[in-house]
Amino acid sequence: MKILHTATGEYKDAEVVPVAEKDYDYIKNCGRFVFDWRTENRLGFEVYKIALKEYEDHILGLLSLRDIQQELRIHVNLVEVSSDNIGAGKIYDRIAGSLLGFASQMAFEKSYDGFVSLIPKTDLIDHYCQKYGFSRVGKSLAVEGAGSLAIIQNYL
Question: Which residues pair with 79 in a beta bridge?
Fold first, then answer.
């Protein structure tokens, strides 16, 4: 997958991998993430990080998800982009999209037809719908099929 360096317009290779135990102290102490990601792990969610291949230890974003097999879907519990990659002055772009693409790809690999759900903060509902193609389903947002394929094609 490719992450965009905003200052140069150059695309950098990145990858999503499971968060290692040693990463949790870095995440907590680096001052770039708000949420307690160790708690996500303790609650049984699968936790993943995205980093540039050339700087594996510099985490750009995090994702926790749950495989809900009985409903044939992947549920994104939490997604967070590091504070230095948010807003007008961000260093890298395409981080959240790449994490959602990873979840979508996982949903296809598990034969869920790309079915991914999440419950966003109210102020992000329109963003997820417009930028990533999610649709409202009750209090949740979901994407599947062609919508998930579009996320994968655009971000992975």
Answer: 63
What amino acid is encoded at 83 in this protein? S
Quick one: the chain helix, strand, coil %, rounded to 5? Answer: 40, 35, 30
User: Hey, what's the torsion of the CAs at 23, 33, 143, 146, to 10 degrees?
Assistant: -70
Domain boundaries, the chain: 2-155
CATH class, 2-155 region: alpha beta
Compute mean pLDDT per 10 residues along the chain, 156 residues long, and list them.
96 96 95 96 96 91 98 97 96 98 98 97 90 95 98 97
Q: Report CA-CA distances (Å) from 42 to 21, 46, 76, 113.
A: 11, 10, 16, 28
- Model pTM score: 0.96
Residue 17, Cα to own-chain centre: how many angstroms? Answer: 11
